[in-house]
Write a structure and sequence with these properties.
Structural class: mainly beta
Radius of gyration: 20 Å
CATH superfamily: monomeric porin ompg
CATH class: Mainly Beta
Strand content: over 45%
Strand order of the largest sheet: 1-2-3-4-5-6-7-8-9-10-11-12
Oligomer: single chain
Number of helices: 1
């Protein structure tokens, strides 16, 4: 199989973006599932080329993420001591993820470590605040906005290449250092530890220029001490497929399936199991170019969500720039 140098690097950065995306995903903690409709995992973090090994050394991925999601007045979400309905959420996040790829093989594969940091704004509007502190019943709308740093998301992975077939395993940790207040509607941090692990596969045929990737993972969430709420175990499958039109440009589709395996628990889980799910699909475009003498990679992708349960749904878009040092 022929693989040019530029392609190796773009694959690495892309996958690390995805990884970062995943990390970023971690950073997006506003209204996705579980407690308050929020999950540790941000669907769409992984995509095309997720399992392809890269080039040893340092790289940096910068990601801008925007999401607009909502849920009708018939859907209730718990947030600390509050129950809310008629939820509309807007997110604008910037994620920075430095990554280091080791040159020495580990278990016959290529090892890498990364950490993602998040900064951004989350805006939340609710049409009804059904209950507040002390059990008081309140009606009317409420709005909250929060601009701050989110949690940190360290990640480690191993990748193997066997011709057109590539495999990988990863683990990611959610470190609760982001902005959080149990009495606020808009939070960027989760206020609880999380551990996510999984594996992925990429088929990459350089002769035809076709590629397909899928990454499956599972999340275990620890209890939020401020609300006595523990999210259940989550599963997620991110996928991407693309066609290379040249050595610089590829086009394709991306998607995800998110499904909560076990129910939420703890004294704060007043809505019961509150198991959630959501699906997403959309287009993507990737382009490799030069920044001075360094290789760089740009990717844009978007998802339209459908089939949501116990979770807001809408659309989200990602702009990613990855650079080799």
């Amino acid at each position: 199989m022929y693989r040019s140098r530029w392609f190796d690097r773009s694959l690495l950065t892309t996958k690390l973006l995805a990884l970062l995306c995943m990390a970023f995903m971690l950073a997006s903690q506003s209204a996705k599932a579980d407690e308050g409709g929020v999950s540790f995992w941000l669907p769409g973090q992984y995509g095309s080329l997720a399992a392809v090994p890269g080039e040893p050394g340092w790289s940096l991925a910068l990601i801008y993420y925007h999401a607009s999601v909502g849920a009708g007045g018939s859907k209730e979400f718990s947030r600390g001591e509050q129950l809310t309905a008629g939820l509309d959420v807007s997110e604008d996040l910037l994620i920075a993820m430095p990554t280091y790829v080791f040159s020495t093989p580990v278990l016959g594969g290529q090892a890498s470590v990364a950490i993602a940091a998040v900064y951004g704004n989350v805006g939340v509007d609710v049409n009804a605040l059904l209950s507040g502190p002390g059990g008081a019943v309140i009606s009317g709308s409420e709005t909250d906005s929060n601009t701050a740093f989110g949690d940190l998301f360290p990640t480690a992975s191993l990748r193997w290449n066997h011709g057109s077939n590539n495999t990988m395993v990863y683990t990611m940790l959610g470190v609760p250092v982001g902005s959080y207040d149990a009495e606020r509607l808009a939070n960027i941090g989760t206020n609880h530890w999380s551990v996510d692990a999984g594996g992925g596969y990429t088929y990459l045929n350089m002769k035809s220029g076709r590629e397909f990737s899928a990454t499956l993972g599972f999340t275990y969430n620890f209890e939020n001490p401020a609300t006595d709420y523990q999210n259940g175990i989550d599963s997620h499958l991110d996928w991407g497929a693309s066609q290379f039109l040249s050595e610089q440009l590829h086009l394709g589709l991306v998607g995800y399936f998110y499904y909560q395996l076990t129910g939420d628990s703890g004294k704060g889980a007043v809505l019961g199991d509150f198991k959630s799910k959501v699906n997403g699909i959309g287009p993507q475009l990737g382009y490799l170019f030069k920044m001075g003498e360094k290789d760089a990679y740009f990717n844009i992708k978007g998802y339209w969500e459908f089939g949501a349960e116990n979770r807001p749904e809408g659309w989200n878009g990602w702009l990613t720039l990855s650079m080799d040092f």
